[in-house]
From TrEMBL:
MF terms (GO), sorted A to Z: oxidoreductase activity, acting on the CH-OH group of donors, NAD or NADP as acceptor
InterPro entries: AKR, Aldo/ket_reductase_CS, NAD(P)_OxRdtase_dom_sf, NADP_OxRdtase_dom
Domain NADP-dependent oxidoreductase per the UniProt entry, residue ranges: 17-260
Organism (species): Vagococcus acidifermentans
Name of the protein in question: Aldo/keto reductase
UniProt keyword Membrane, yes or no: no
Amino acid sequence: MNLSSTIQLANGVAMPRLGLGVWKAEEGKEAAQAVQWAIETGYQLIDTAAVYKNEKSVGEGIRAAGVPREELFITTKVWNDEQGYDSTLAAMDASLARLGLDYVDLYLIHWPVAGKYKETWRAMEKIYKDGKAKAIGVSNFHAHHLEDIMADAEIMPMVNQVELHPHLTQEPLREFCAKHNIVVEAWSPLGQGQLLTNDVLTTIGNKYGKTAAQVILRWDVQHNIVTIPKSVNQGRIKENASIFDFELTEEEMQLIDGLNQNARFGSDPDNFDF
């Protein structure tokens, strides 16, 4: 495996296993430069969202890097206040305009807004059929939300992007997604930095000359979890990508699995108010 290694989605699209998240990267130079640095380092997956307010800068970073569009995998998401059928179609067009792209590789429903996400999914299916997104999926969906969509869906969700890290390993949800050929993608894989001093992770890292962050990202990759650590620091962006020159043992994987506390840093998809 290396930085251009991919995992296959249900429709045959190849999705990179490691990418750059740009949540909280400021619109303007900060976000554009982080994206450019990541692509120049060899990243192909860039993950943004309408609510991050930095799609325009992500597009600038993509163009500045000068890599052919077809070599990249760009994700964005429809925000909660734009869910519904017509508004989701409009939101997609607005995101494409801000990004300066003809299509995205993956379009996600950002959160399961009650009473709206099924209509939103119908719009996602149209977006997919129209070629504006090469793949469609969801974010922050529990298994019961997925079952609700899948009961009526013509096209099944291909990706579920959720909060996932060693303190929230999401094993039952991962099993559900594996059964239904849905790729799991981790946001906040480093637990918003809270896990970087964990003794188990630092001890394993010392053995390989790696940081706790690199150990976590390697754990993701070995579990077939796509992972998108966020950084606007050039050194950190490179460091996060340097996880393909070592392999965790089965015992080490189990030790990290054992750190689970079902602890969230973000909101619970069953109880959010935004």
